[in-house]
Amino acid sequence: MAGEGNVHPTRSEALRAAEDSLRTQGGKLRVKERGGRWRESFTIGRSGFARISAVEGIHLPGDMEKHLRELDRQGLSPEDRLKAIMRKLGK
């Protein structure tokens, strides 16, 4: 799991580890550029989004939750996850 202070051999490996963690848990991803500047992005994970949505009475159908867990297991890129979801929904 990616966490504050974890060091990875390459930037792409570090981003992949952080994205894997953020996908389900949410949190804040901070990327330091070569010039020492910070670039920030905030992501709400599926569990956090589910809790917020529940307040509004919005819930994912069980088959969709299962499908999203399967996509997590496959470790797809965000682009490939979107394509898989669009295929499932027929759009």
Strand order of the largest sheet: 1-2
C-alpha geometry: globular
Number of helices: 4
Tally the structural domains: 2
Strand tally, please? 2
* Beta-strand proportion: 5-15%
Report the helical percentage: 40-55%
Rg, Cα atoms, Å? 15 Å
Q: Report the uncertain regions.
A: none
Order of helices and strands: HEEHHH
**Largest pleated sheet:** 2 strands, antiparallel
Helix-strand makeup class: alpha+beta
Report the span from N to C terminus.
33 Å
Mean pLDDT: 78
Features:
2 domains; alpha+beta; globular; 4 helices; DUF2188; 91 residues
Could you walk me through the main structural features you see in this protein, from its secondary elements to its overall organization?
Strands 1-2 form a two-stranded antiparallel sheet. 55% of the residues lie in helices and 13% in strands. The protein has 91 residues and is of the alpha+beta class.
